[in-house]
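Example 4.3 (complexes with small molecules)
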Amino acid sequence: MNVETAKTVLAVTQDKELKLILEQALKKDRAYRYHLCGSSKEALVRLESHEVNMLIFDADIGEDPKAGLPIKMRLSHPHVARVVVASPRKLAEADALAKDSAAYIFITKPVVVSQVRLTIKRALELSELSRRHRIVTRELKLSVDDELFDEDRRLSVSGGISKFERLVYASPKMADVVAKAKAASKTELSVLITGETGTGKELMAKAIHFNSSRSESPMHVQNCGGMDETTLRAELFGHLAGAIPGIAAERLGLFRAADGGTVFLDEISEVSPAFQAALLRFLQEGEVKPVGSDSVHYSDVRIIAATNRPLEELVANGSFRKDLYYRLNGFGLEIPPLRERPEDVEALAEFFLEKYAGVVGRRVLGFTSEVLAVLSRYQYPGNVRELENEVQKMVAIAEQGGYISERHLSPDLAKLRFSERLPQGLDVMGGSLKEMVESLEAKIVETTLRKLNWNQTQAAQELGLSRVGLANKIKRYSLAEQGA
Ligand SMILES: Nc1ncnc2c1ncn2[C@@H]1O[C@H](COP(=O)(O)OP(=O)(O)OP(=O)(O)O)[C@@H](O)[C@H]1O
Ligand SMILES: [Mg+2]
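Answer. The structure with magnesium ion bound is encoded below.
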């Protein structure tokens, strides 16, 4: 083990005997750097300025255990392994402290060198394992998607499908937006993403984060809509214990939790003027002042904000601060609604088909061309989310080893089937609405019958009529099989 990989152990104690044991356990071992502090206050200063991997906290130090350093560190330094040591007379307090601080273990005095060595080794192993687990979990998530994105697979049959992290697209419009987003991810500027609901704003924000130099640090998401100001402030800036009614424990806040990373603020248009001011201060100075506290902390966070309401208009009518708007809009990205990028529909539908067939463990061969035609004619008020839901539902009811056909379409989409079957340039006859509707009905019935070679059973089924109902319509409109 060389000095670069050596782990730093910080001990907080005034107990001479414990100091001696810790020195014996750690000082000569090159796997560790050892630092001793006489109080939590001193330790906090050290923590602010140096990397620390492990804390050994002596509960006999005579500080208020509820305000104990290990508890604070659970929030401020969650990845530092914590061990609590106490004399038997402090057993109950030490037990509570270990629980509240999510310590690895608490051990009672007198401790012996070999016991300390083993405890430190195991605690550090565990924190290393959880660090790796976090990385692997993320990699696993990506590799599941990578499998879906595999160039050789059926997904790419329609050609020209691209991806940006988990965003799938084939349209030139999205290619433009993604090119801008990739450029944005290489900068430290704030990003403002605009787009209707379900267009993929959050997915885009994640893609930018994971393509940026901050990708190894956390990205936290906060929806700013439908939240009162105090709660939103507390979520982002943190709060002291008791500062928020009904919440006993103190909270670090997402801005500090995401230090070094990214915070995604969704529905940014919904925040109050006072919150806008606090956010601006944070963007300018990196200042974080927890609710109920006078102390100021600093955090280095990149902001990506999203809105489905045009912020320029809110700036123009005075409900959104202009200076904040400019600050957020370092890079402006506009994701077009799905109906304006029809080339994406098939690519996305195939992607979701594969995704959900995998989820339910069903082999579905694909969509019939009729279904694809219907899917690409629909307007998608709910954008990609709506398409995703449609495909998920269709996959759920599709037969094993079969195709998704018109029968599987939901009623909203099924409506589009009929107009598609109408002959091009259909001239509807008659003057009154009733006459026009009847003429249209006659044409639909006739076209369906012709398509199905006058198989009345099938035609009735397709039109949602009974056999008798269909026969009545044939009679009423004097329809007859050609050449019959
Ligand atoms: N280009 C895309 N490729 C793959 N999946 C997408 C794409 N765009 C959106 N989605 C999927 O659609 C759903 C909605 O996306 P997302 O939550 O990012 O949209 P949003 O714009 O943030 O919506 P809202 O405004 O409602 O918050 C998600 O399940 C997402 O995975
Ligand atoms: Mg969203």
